[in-house]
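This section describes the prediction task in plain terms. A model, or a person checking by hand, is given the sequence of a single protein chain and must write out its three-dimensional structure as a string of tokens. No templates, partner chains or ligands are provided. The sample shown here is typical of the held-out split.
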Amino acid sequence: MSLTKRYLKTKAVCKVIFRFPQKAAPKAKTVYLVGEFNNWNTYATPMRRLKSGEFTTTLDLKTGKAYQFRYLIDDTAWENDWAADQYVPNPFGNSENSVVVV
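The expected answer:
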């Protein structure tokens, strides 16, 4: 997994490219990006599957903030981003959320 950040010079926005590699879930049919930026709406941000098997999506996030997020694989499994800026305990107490700081 990886996060690529591109800050825009004309706006207080950062384009963040989220990548979920095939090796993280080789048999995944769907991956959704779920987090504070979409009010934890499970299906608001589907990721696009590339020919390589990797899933990707790009979001414009306001700078000066930290956003918690996770990946939802095939509606059954949650995964963190291995390259997240930080990790924080989630309210369910059994795992952590990934954090991207922009």
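For orientation: The beta strands are 2-7, 13-20, 31-35, 48-49, 55-62, 66-73, 77-79, 86-89, 96-101.
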